[in-house]
């Protein structure tokens, strides 16, 4: 530095001060706008101008940026700051809401509508001659749904009735024989004075033998009559059986409901036990599958808000009826006694079905529209 003159030293100092002022000005602008750090370069023309004007020790001060250049950056900084603050407030309120919501409500979208489904089967074999219902038709008890060919069963019933009539006739004949045996008597022998003692003894023995024969015949006739009565009873049972099978040719509904699946056609040969039609009974309910970690606060009787996907603008009400003793109908093995609770993984958490009954008032007008299989969202108010 000893090789430089005082004037040159002053010029260099002036340039350094100018650079520092420019650097401080750009740092202030960066703080207001929250932009990436950048440096404001010093142009060679500015340095030359400063050097030429400081020859007489008069250094020109730098010109500060105009307010028009700072205004867009300032507005952008204010907007970004406001957005960041609003996002933080929204995130905090959402977190606070979810905490309070989780304490008061338990919600699941893994829920569906179900109901009792009655399967109509054929108790006998036969050919379908008539189908009296259509898909989705409402049926009532004793309504005839399917008719089977009756001819074979009419023949069997006629034969059974004929056998019964024959059995009755045989029983009547046996009864007459029994009555004749009951009233049959052996006359006393009449002895003459000229009969010898040997002849008298022979007559007495003959009478005793006849009496014994009548007694045995009476027992036989009595047994035949009992057999005839038993035969009548058996034939009557056969007639009743054939009449019952004949009645089965008219397959009727046993309960009120709506026809679901129809698996039969006219001319089809059906077998005993074959499902022909399914009837969905009224009064459906909800099965909601909650995670086992949600069941701590769920109790029977709690109110439930229900949303069914088919009716998005309608909110239904219900209440918790019961909690299933198993997860999805499966009984899990008991854990080992020495297994720590911390060994349970999130993937091991089971879902437990909870039965929710619908409030009849909230389903008014939708009784025939809510059908099993519809998806639902259930929200239980736990307090």
Would you mind describing this structure in some detail?
It contains five helices and 14 strands. By secondary structure, it is an alpha+beta fold. It has four domains: 6-99, no CATH class; 106-114 and 283-381, Efflux pump adaptor protein, beta barrel domain (Elongation Factor Tu (Ef-tu), domain 3); 116-146 and 249-282, RNA polymerase II/Efflux pump adaptor protein, barrel-sandwich hybrid domain (OB fold (Dihydrolipoamide Acetyltransferase, E2P)), CATH 2.40.50.100; 150-248. The strands form three sheets. Strands 1-10-13-12-11-14 form a six-stranded antiparallel beta barrel. A four-stranded antiparallel sheet has the order 2-9-7-4, with no helix packed on it. Strand 11 (303-308) and strand 12 form a beta hairpin. Helix 4 runs antiparallel to helix 5 (197-247).
Report the uncertain regions. 32-61, 331-342
Physical arrangement of strands within the biggest beta sheet: 1-10-13-12-11-14
Largest sheet: 6 strands, antiparallel, barrel
Over the alpha carbons, how many angstroms does the gyration radius reach? 53 Å
* CATH architecture call of the largest domain: Beta Barrel
Count of spatially separate domains: 4
**What coarse outline follows from CA principal-axis ratios?**
rod-shaped
List the total number of helices. Answer: 5
């Amino acid at each position: 530095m000893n090789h430089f003159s005082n004037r040159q030293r002053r010029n260099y100092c002036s340039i350094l001060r100018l650079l520092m002022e420019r650097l401080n000005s750009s740092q202030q602008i960066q703080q207001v706008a929250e932009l990436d750090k950048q440096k404001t370069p010093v142009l060679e023309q500015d340095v030359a101008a400063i050097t030429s004007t400081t020859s007489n020790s008069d250094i020109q001060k730098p010109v500060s940026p105009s307010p028009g250049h700072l205004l867009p950056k300032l507005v952008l900084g204010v907007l970004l700051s406001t957005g960041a603050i609003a996002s933080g407030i929204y995130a905090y309120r959402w977190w606070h809401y979810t905490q309070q919501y989780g304490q008061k409500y338990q919600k699941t979208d893994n829920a569906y509508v179900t109901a009792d489904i009655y399967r109509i089967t054929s108790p006998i074999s036969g050919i379908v001659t008539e189908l009296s219902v259509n898909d989705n038709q409402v049926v009532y008890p004793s309504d005839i749904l399917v008719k089977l060919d009756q001819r074979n069963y009419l023949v069997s019933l006629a034969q059974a009735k004929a056998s019964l009539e024959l059995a009755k006739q045989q029983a009547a004949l046996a009864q007459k024989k029994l009555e004749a045996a009951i009233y049959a008597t052996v006359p006393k022998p009449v002895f003459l004075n000229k009969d010898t003692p040997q002849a008298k003894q022979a007559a007495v023995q003959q009478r005793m033998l006849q009496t014994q024969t009548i007694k045995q015949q009476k027992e036989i006739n009595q047994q035949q009559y009992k057999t005839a009565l038993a035969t009548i009873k058996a034939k009557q049972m056969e007639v009743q059986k054939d009449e019952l099978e004949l009645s089965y040719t008219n397959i009727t509904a046993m309960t009120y409901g709506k026809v679901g699946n129809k698996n039969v056609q006219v001319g089809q040969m059906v077998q005993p036990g074959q499902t022909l039609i399914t009837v969905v009974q009224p009064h459906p309910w909800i099965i909601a599958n909650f995670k086992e970690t949600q069941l701590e606060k769920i109790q029977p009787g709690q109110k439930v808000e229900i949303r069914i996907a088919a009716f998005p603008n309608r909110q239904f009400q219900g209440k918790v009826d019961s909690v299933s003793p198993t997860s999805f109908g499966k009984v899990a093995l008991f854990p080992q006694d020495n297994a720590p609770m911390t060994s349970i993984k999130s993937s091991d958490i089971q879902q437990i079905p909870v039965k929710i009954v619908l409030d009849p008032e909230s389903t008014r007008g939708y009784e025939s529209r809510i059908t099993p299989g519809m998806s639902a969202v259930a929200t239980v108010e736990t307090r």
